[in-house]
Write a structure and sequence with these properties.
Layout (H helix, E strand, L loop, with lengths): L1 E5 L3 E5 L5 E5 L2 E5 L2 E2 L6 E4 L3 H18 L6 E5 L4 E4 L3 E2 L4 E8 L3 H6 L8 E10 L11 H6 L7 H21 L4 E11 L5 E4 L7 E5 L2 E3 L1 H9 L1
């Protein structure tokens, strides 16, 4: 295997057959030792986070593909905390697409003059640049196209896919008596240009509430998978 990238929560390798291997870590994002899925820095390590995140990712990716939405997922090895995926290129140097059902986190930090904590948002979609130095700034459709990060029409595709995926996941949690407040997704292009969901879907990139209380990332695994 060839080491491609050492990320915050995963290590990426290229396999001899051209596919890629993602190795999930126990590291989690946050600040001052407190978990925060919206943070762009590693703040703590949670034992079992890697395998738990992979179990959730395998579950959600399977459900998403069953719904007819393409992903880069091929297979998962839970014991080794690895996932084999199709090669896909990211948009620019990487985008994060956030779907918000309630106002929390960075949304409140930016728009607290107008928004109320926890107010309902109708599957609102935001796109931010993956740029740690600039604290992942939000970016508009016009800017994405002017900078050549997205082609014409791709913004609407990302928005539509994000809403479909997020509503599917929201409904899965609702059936468990929990509420999805927001979720962060990533997309890429396959060699043939198809836009697919990439990376992971785990407790590390979503906020779940149950009984008015935030559900921790490992408790999300238990909630969904038992």
């Amino acid at each position: 295997m060839k080491l491609i990238y050492e990320g915050k929560t995963k290590t990426v390798y290229e396999l001899p057959d051209g596919n890629f291997l993602l190795k999930f870590k126990d590291d989690a994002t946050g600040k001052d030792g407190v978990f925060d899925p919206g943070s762009n820095q590693v703040a703590l390590s949670i034992d079992g986070m890697g395998k738990g995140g992979l179990r959730l990712t395998e579950f959600f990716f399977t459900k998403i593909e069953e719904a007819g939405i393409p992903t880069h997922f091929i297979s998962a090895n839970i014991d080794e905390a690895t996932m084999t995926v199709k090669p896909a290129t990211v948009f620019g140097k990487g985008l994060e697409v956030i779907c918000r059902f309630r106002a929390v986190g960075s949304f409140m930090r930016r728009y607290g003059l107008y928004a109320k904590e926890g107010q309902a948002l109708d599957a609102l979609v935001e796109i931010t640049l993956k740029d740690d130095d600039r604290e992942d700034p939000p970016i508009t459709q016009d800017s994405l196209e002017a900078l050549g990060i997205l082609k014409a029409g791709e913004f609407n595709t990302l928005k539509e896919l994000t809403r479909r995926i997020s509503i599917l996941i929201r409904d899965l949690f609702a059936a468990k008596g929990a509420e999805l407040y927001d979720i962060k997704l990533e997309f890429g292009r396959l060699a043939d240009g198809t836009i697919v969901l990439i990376d992971e879907i785990s407790g590390g990139n979503m906020r779940i509430y149950s009984g008015g209380k935030n559900v921790g990332p490992l408790d999300i695994v238990k909630l969904v998978l038992g």
